[in-house]
Amino acid sequence: MHEIRDITIIGGGPTGLFASFYAGMRGATAQIVDTLPQLGGQLTALYPEKYIFDVAGFAKVLAKDLVHSLTEQTAQFHFPSFLGQHVTGLEEEDGHFVLVTDTDRFPTRSVVIAAGIGAFSPRRLPQQCADPWYGRGIFDNVADPEAFRGQKIVIIGGGDSAFDWAHQLRDRAAAVTLVHRSDKYRAHGATVGEVNAAVAAGRTTLLPFYELHEIIADGDRLSAIVVREVKTKETRTIEADCVLPMLGFISDIGPLAEWGLNLEKHEIVVNSLMETGRPGVYAAGDITSYPGKLKLIATGFAEAATAVNQAFHWIYPDKKVNPGHSSNMAVFGQKDD
Ligand SMILES: Cc1cc2nc3c(=O)[nH]c(=O)nc-3n(C[C@H](O)[C@H](O)[C@H](O)COP(=O)(O)OP(=O)(O)OC[C@H]3O[C@@H](n4cnc5c(N)ncnc54)[C@H](O)[C@@H]3O)c2cc1C
Description:
2 domains; alpha/beta; FAD/NAD(P)-binding domain
C-alpha cells in the first residue's frame, strides 16, 4: 500500500504530465500511474521522432522533446510515477479511493483520468514464426533510431508509422525494405511520395502484395526473412538484421468502462468542470467527450488545469478553484498575490 495522495492521475501522456505539474503548483500531492514502461503516452509510444507544430509556444517540437520538457516541468515537485502498472479497479474505503493495478494499490483522495485512447499495445504479426523473435530481431517500437544504424531493416506495414520509419531510417540503415500485403497505403501522401522517390533512386525497396512467411536464423541471430506474394505464393528471401512490424496499435479502455462513469463509445462524458458524474473522479485529455471536443495536446493541457483545480477544491473546499497567476506564486519563488 502506498502513501495516500491528493490526486492520482491515470495516464502519463501529455495531459497526465501537465496535470501532475498543475497539482504540484496548487500545493496538492500527486502521482501518475501508467501501463506503459515510459512516460509520454502516444507521443512516446507512437511518434517520438515526429515534429508537432501546434503546441503553444513552440514553432515546432519533436514529440519526444515535448515529453522531456513536460517531465522536467513536473519533476520540480518530485512526485512518483508508477510505470508498467495497468489500473484495473477503482474502490472506495475509509472515505477515500483506492486505485487497483495488477500488483499494487494506490490510496488517493481524488482521481484524474487522463487515459487517452486507453491502454494500447502494438498489433503483433499474425505469423507464429515471429513470436520467438520479439525483442531480439523483431521490434515494434523504435525508441532510438540510432540503434538501427548500419542495419539491414525490413519494415512491415502500410500506414503512417511504416512509411515514416522507412523514410527516417533510410540514411542510417544499410538497407531498408518495406513490405506490405497490398498496394493500398494509409500513410500521408507526402511520405509515400518520399519513399517512392527513394525507391526510384534505388535507396529503398518496396514490396507490395507480400507478407512474412518465414524467419531465417544464423545461430541466435535473425539473418533473413522469407516473404511470400499473397496471390502467386512466390517467395523471396531478404537479408535482414531486424524486422520492424508497424501494424498499428490496439487500444482498450478496459476496466474503466465498468466504473459507473458516463461513457459514449469509448470516451468519458464530462461537463465543463471535467466532472465524470462520480464525485471526486475527473477526466481530461483524449479520453473525454463533450460537444465541440478536439482531441489535441493543447486541449488536454487546458482540461488538465480545469480537472486539477476542481479536484483540489473538491478535496479541500476552503481552497479556491481559481489558481491565480503562476507569475505571482510563492511556490516558484515569486511574491504571492
Ligand atoms: C501519429 C500521431 C500524430 C499526432 N500529432 C498531433 C499533433 O501534431 N498535435 C496534437 O495536438 N496532437 C497530435 N496527436 C494527438 C495527441 O498525441 C493526443 O491528443 C495526445 O497524446 C493525448 O494525450 P493524453 O495524455 O490525453 O493521452 P495519451 O497520450 O493517449 O496518454 C494516455 C496514457 O494513459 C495510459 N493508460 C490508459 N489506460 C490506462 C490504464 N487503465 N492504466 C494505466 N495507464 C493507462 C496509456 O498507457 C497512455 O500512456 C497525434 C497523434 C498521433 C497518433
